């Protein structure tokens, strides 16, 4: 135990590991909270679509020698509006619209990378993320995101519940549905862009999908799912980060694998509990 604590102390004495821990925990928490409503409203693939949009915009910005984050954030926010609002209006089915935008953005991004000959573009960092690229500014951005998402979720909990389960009733009672959807789109977009820095395009949607789906295996109330979803990413990210350092595995993939194990454990526990109650 002493040797383990000593190793962990040495591990987190490195500045980039501290940056990764703080940024990852805060972004994972925000993604999980937003993911509860997205999953329940059957918009879970929007996270995957937005991550592809972020990849495309980052690749194009890098190829054009522009500031990647300044290009990616407004583009992803606009895409989030498009996905959420058009899906609500029913002009296109959510899954079809997400597939169109995500594949199109991925193709544009890959084309931009292939045409940017002579430029140093590491596509693996875009696709799978890298904790080595995190800086102190990423930490402050994640703190700012958490300062927006967590208090808003607590203060607007009952209204989020209404919008999530009965959009029509919430609108009929006079709630400003458009405003809530707009704020939700902005927060989701920011979470995706920040999370891509360490999870990458191909894995960021796991932060949104796995916590609520895992919590739903055991919890039956909306409040219980939200609380459990807030705790699960803390466990999966910290554990995955430690395992990635110990076994020299990719951090993003390690976090997702821990999330899969948690999902399987919760599913088994839920099945055993239902079987025992018969």
What does this protein look like?
The chain has helices at residues 2-11, 15-40, 46-63, 68-89, 94-115, 123-128, 136-155, 157-165, 167-172, 177-199, 205-215, 222-247, 251-276. With 278 residues, the protein is mostly helical. The chain is globular.
Task: Provide key terms for this protein.
278 residues, mainly alpha, 81% helix
TL;DR?
This protein is an all-alpha fold and 278 residues long.
- The sequence of SSEs as H and E is HHHHHHHHHHHHH
Helix content: over 70%
Overall geometry: globular
Cα(first) to Cα(last) distance is: 42 Å
Poorly predicted runs: none
Structural class: mainly alpha
Number of strands: 0
Strand portion: under 5%
Architecture blueprint of SSEs:
Elements: H1 2-11, H2 15-40, H3 46-63, H4 68-89, H5 94-115, H6 123-128, H7 136-155, H8 157-165, H9 167-172, H10 177-199, H11 205-215, H12 222-247, H13 251-276
């Amino acid at each position: 135990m002493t040797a383990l604590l000593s190793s962990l102390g040495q591990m987190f004495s490195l500045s980039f590991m501290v940056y990764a821990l703080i940024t990852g925990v805060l972004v994972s928490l925000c993604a999980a909270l937003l993911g509860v409503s997205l999953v329940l409203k059957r918009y879970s693939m929007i996270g995957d679509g937005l991550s592809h949009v972020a990849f495309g915009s980052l690749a194009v910005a890098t190829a054009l020698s522009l500031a990647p984050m300044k290009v990616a954030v407004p583009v992803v926010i606009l895409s989030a509006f498009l996905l959420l609002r058009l899906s609500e209006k029913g002009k296109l089915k959510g899954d079809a619209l997400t597939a169109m935008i995500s594949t199109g953005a991925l193709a544009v991004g890959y084309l931009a990378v292939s045409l940017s000959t002579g430029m140093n573009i590491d596509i693996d960092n875009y696709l799978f993320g890298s904790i080595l690229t995190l800086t102190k500014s990423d930490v402050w951005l994640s703190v700012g995101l958490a300062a927006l998402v967590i208090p808003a979720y607590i203060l607007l909990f009952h209204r989020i519940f209404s919008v999530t389960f009965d959009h029509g009733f919430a609108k009929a009672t006079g709630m400003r549905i458009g405003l809530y959807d707009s704020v939700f789109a902005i927060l989701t977009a920011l979470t995706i862009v920040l999370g891509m820095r360490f999870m990458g395009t191909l894995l960021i949607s796991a932060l949104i999908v796995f916590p609520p789906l895992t919590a739903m295996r055991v919890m039956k109330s909306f409040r219980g799912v939200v609380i459990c979803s807030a705790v699960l990413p803390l466990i999966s990210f910290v554990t995955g980060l430690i395992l990635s350092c110990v076994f020299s595995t990719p951090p993003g993939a390690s976090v997702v694998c821990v999330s899969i194990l948690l999902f399987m454990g919760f599913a088994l526990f839920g099945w055993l509990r239902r079987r025992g109650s018969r």
